[in-house]
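Hi R.,

As promised on Friday, here is the backbone we talked about, encoded as structure tokens. Could you run it through your design pipeline when you get a chance and send me back a sequence?
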């Protein structure tokens, strides 16, 4: 919220002997760093509810296109949510908040808005309007929603799906409190990146993720009837033609969303791989969002689904080309050659889809039992006894252990010391902390630079996130703080230099012989290059057939000459 400097100033003016209690709805990283620097021996006390959702909360995951996201929001507000119910709409940036506020104002839907850069007095007034029931819709960002307590909230709509599972729980956990029922709608883009975040969310909650299809209506991801979306979409197009300010706000929100996508954390690699086989693009209409009207609408939806899923059997060369063209003939021969592979691929796709449907249909959902039913049914309940780790080893080593001289691997008070350790707060705080992406350009840019307490300078200094400054890389490839480096190995090398020199003196004679062997060899690159060229220019010692024949002819000629000279010499005699 931007109160870091004020908190540090207040802490510096407080006496040393004090007891400080710090309350916060969330636990961002900067708050953990502040607790490490400004608090002595901190203790973390938290309610373990962020990984659980109340059973009274209904979750709807709706698949929409990018250009139909606003139309889907209007369908929910007009057709499925009563006007008296209080609804909070979470948007990505402040530009989305301003754009949605203007659109709802033009459509006469009572609403108000809050974002981080809003004036404090306006923020207080808008929050009071919504809490007192003067308006039914509140449009906020994640940063601005912190610190706002709404006890009687009916619905939560995620206009932009959160990038973290804990952030989703923090959003939808505002409704369905104190035994009241609530509903959470999440508008999903038909894009792989947001579906990967959806899969991460269900892995975090430990719930299965299934898609609603024409044959399987037990899924949780569906879509709104297309007729309702088209009606609102056409109305929005006419509204933008009449009001030019909406066009400019829409362009600004689109650019802000692109920057938001660059700065938000990415989903896990495993989820990105699994999402490709889930079939989100062909999901059917959600059964709870269907019209109670006519069979004509159902037939229309089925026809549109078939048109979306239609894939031509031929390529562009076969459909638009002439039968006598070379492209047509080449594609026909290629298709005939790979006919078996194509049939096997389609059969494999049908088999995988059938396996998924069978596994989902065979699941049985049984009601959970409670403690009262168990106690009334069974007279005695036997639970397994928790065995200590020390008891497991005592039975095995009891015969050979000498209690007087035995030195254990772990001290007897290891668990007690870990529980009383000072860094226990740091470990627990790191597990539960999560940061929220900023809702404006300034916050997105400044999020990359955080402030950290410097012990030497005694003040908060700016540190770039993810920088390797002041860190060293271990042999396992992990970056740790440079303070862990003890230089013991280098100190040992300095101490043992004399011993190394004495050991090397014995091998001086052998080393001199090796040096004499390499003494005449070239040292530079070009010298070695020239030697290679000289070796290539040398004649080979192996002679070819022509060379052997030529030498034999020359030898015979020499013999004939020598015989002729001998005959002439004999005649003279």
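Update: got your reply. Pasting your designed sequence below so it's all in one thread:
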């Amino acid at each position: 919220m931007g109160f870091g400097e004020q908190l540090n100033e207040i802490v510096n003016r407080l006496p040393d002997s004090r007891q400080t209690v710090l309350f916060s709805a969330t636990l961002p990283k900067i708050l953990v760093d502040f607790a490490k620097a400004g608090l002595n021996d901190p203790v973390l006390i938290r309610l373990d509810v962020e990984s659980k959702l109340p059973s009274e909360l209904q979750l709807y995951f709706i698949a929409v296109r990018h250009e139909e996201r606003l139309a889907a929001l209007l369908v929910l507000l007009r057709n499925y949510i009563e006007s008296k119910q209080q609804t909070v709409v979470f948007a990505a940036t402040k530009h989305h908040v301003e754009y949605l506020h203007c659109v709802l104002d033009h459509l006469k839907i009572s609403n108000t808005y809050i974002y981080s850069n809003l004036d404090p007095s306006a923020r207080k007034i808008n929050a009071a309007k919504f809490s007192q029931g003067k308006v039914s819709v509140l449009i906020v960002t994640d940063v601005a929603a912190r610190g706002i307590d709404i006890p009687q909230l009916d619905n939560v709509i995620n206009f932009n799906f959160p990038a973290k599972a804990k952030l989703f729980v923090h959003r939808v956990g505002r409704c369905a409190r104190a035994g009241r029922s609530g509903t959470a709608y999440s508008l999903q883009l038909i894009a792989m990146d947001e579906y990967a975040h959806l899969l991460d969310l269900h892995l975090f909650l430990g719930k299965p993720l299934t898609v609603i299809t024409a044959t399987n209506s037990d899924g949780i991801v569906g879509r709104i009837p297309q007729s309702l979306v088209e009606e609102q979409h056409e109305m929005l197009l006419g509204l933008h033609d009449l009001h030019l300010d909406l066009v400019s706000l829409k362009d600004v929100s689109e650019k802000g969303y692109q920057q938001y996508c660059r700065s938000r954390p990415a989903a896990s690699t495993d989820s990105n791989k699994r999402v490709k086989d889930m079939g989100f693009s062909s999901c059917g209409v959600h059964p709870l969002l269907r019209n109670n009207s006519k069979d004509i609408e159902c037939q229309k939806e089925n026809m549109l689904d078939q048109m979306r899923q239609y894939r031509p059997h031929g390529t562009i060369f076969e459909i638009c080309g002439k039968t006598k063209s070379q492209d047509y003939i080449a594609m026909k021969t290629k298709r005939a050659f790979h006919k078996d592979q194509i049939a096997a691929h389609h059969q494999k796709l049908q088999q995988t889809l059938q396996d998924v449907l069978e596994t989902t249909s065979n699941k049985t959902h049984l009601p959970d039992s409670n403690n009262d039913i168990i106690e009334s049914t069974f007279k005695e309940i036997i639970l397994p006894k928790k065995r200590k780790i020390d008891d497991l080893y005592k039975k095995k080593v009891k015969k050979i252990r000498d209690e007087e001289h035995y030195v254990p691997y772990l001290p007897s008070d290891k668990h007690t010391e870990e529980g009383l350790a000072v860094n226990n707060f740091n470990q627990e705080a790191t597990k539960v902390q999560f940061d929220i992406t900023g809702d404006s350009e300034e916050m997105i840019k400044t999020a990359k630079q955080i402030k950290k307490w410097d012990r030497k300078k005694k003040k908060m200094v700016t540190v770039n996130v993810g920088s390797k400054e002041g860190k060293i890389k271990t042999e396992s490839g992990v970056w740790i703080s440079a303070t862990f480096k003890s230089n013991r190995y280098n100190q040992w090398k300095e101490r043992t230099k004399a011993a190394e020199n004495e050991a090397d003196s014995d091998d001086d004679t052998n080393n001199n012989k090796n040096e004499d062997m390499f003494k005449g060899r070239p040292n530079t690159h070009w010298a070695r290059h020239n030697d290679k060229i000289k070796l290539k220019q040398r004649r080979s010692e192996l002679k070819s057939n022509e060379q052997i024949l030529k030498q034999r002819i020359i030898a015979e000629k020499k013999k004939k000459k020598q015989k002729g000279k001998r005959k002439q010499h004999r005649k003279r005699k």
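One thing I noticed while checking it: The first strand starts at residue 57 and ends at 64.

Thanks again,
M.
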